[in-house]
Amino acid sequence: MRPPTRHLRGFAPWIVPLLILLAWEASSRLGWLSVRILPEPLAVATAFWNLLVSGSLVHDVAISTGRALGGLAIGGGLGLALGLLTGTFRTAETLLDTTLQMIRNVPALALIPLVILWFGIDESAKLFLVAIGVFFPIYLNTYHGIRAVDAGLIEMARSYGLQGWSLYRDVILPGALPSILVGLRFSLGLMWVLLIVAETISAQSGIGYMTMNAREFLQTDVVLVGVLLYALLGKLADLVARGLERRFLRWNPAYLGVAA
Amino acid sequence: MQRDWIAPPAAGHAVQLDGLCKQFGDRTVLDGLHLDIAPGEFVAIVGRSGCGKSTLLRLLAGLDAPSDGELRLGGAPASARRDDVRMMFQEARLLPWRTVLQNVKLGLDAADAQARDALAHVGLVDRAHDWPSVLSGGQRQRVALARALVHRPRLMLLDEPLGALDALTRIEMQRLIESVWRERRFTAVLVTHDVAEAVALADRVLLVEDGRITLDEAVTLARPRAHGSAAFADIEGRVLARVLKEPAQAAIEQRSRLAA
């Protein structure tokens, strides 16, 4: 491929967002859009800059990221552990899977009133919501990943003397990994959704707090900064998940070209 | 390509099957099967689908346990763990997340030199660091052969390993297997649908029908055998006629019984 074409292809996805941005700026300047509804992009950028300089932006993003990752660690860790358990042992599946499938059908957000009753409105409530939301994608995909490992490969490995932990490490876990990473990617998306809701309901810090505070003072530009931050953080999480896939699934034909 | 092996070639196992039975539920797959295989002998088993030939191989490999009867390897009752018995499957069954070299090393600790030697033996040492997904079907089976050889098996089980290959690759693989067998003198048991393949490779061609051996044809042609020779065609024709006869007769009998 010739370099100019590649540049163009790299640039192409950004054409539409740029056009929207230009149209937005123009309609604000022409007075078509009220500042209360949608401030001009420049004002949003200024608000972003001011928040950054004052240090409150970094503080809020750090707090929110901490909550998100904390919830992911707890919920994802439990999901992985239980998924490995029910995927590997029939007894564990018989005992646990039906219960977990029932709980899965309850939307995490429906638990909010209960969560507030249990934890009040402090940090543990937010961690709990995020954890329970990210638990199921990782649990389900781990469980199915383990179950879907090619039985022929397991039989082959057994006949080559692999058993117990070495069979698990060399055959079952790598075989389940693509599925586990799909679960992680789903979880990363859900993680932000749940955090936004949790922070919007009640918080004394974090991006959700920042936007809710700004709403009370009619600072639409700051609200928009918050919205854009969530979009950026979500994109970042997705990039991380993709990076992990490229790193750990480089043997997979779907990633071979990328890794080379 | 033909490099020297570090250790002396392992001698083949004698195989004795005495009244071997295998039932799956109500279905009897092997029904009191008797068979003696001399050390270093190459035996081919032919038969229709579902005649029990693959089950026999799985019993020899220790992947299934016989329902009744005795199985002796090298004069001793076969134990559950058979480090000197290796099997090649219909599919190569390479671990896709391991490179070619790592696949050959499966179940061995720190055996880089041996694994490379085995790969050199099948002419794939230059592909050592490739992923299995970029290899052709024939190359994958060659890696599977190297993986089996590196364990210095005394009994090599071949479960239609060439069934999925194209005609030219199949003849190449037959020659490779024959040359490796002549050099290493392991005992070989090949299950195949292809009577010509059986006659080309084996010292004895066995026919399994209804869980018993119903034909034991010695093939005394000089090696390497030319597919086109009259003697070859004569044996092939005889075995093939015998394979085809039985079911056709059974169908005629059944029809006459229904008519009566």
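The mean pLDDT of chain A is 88.
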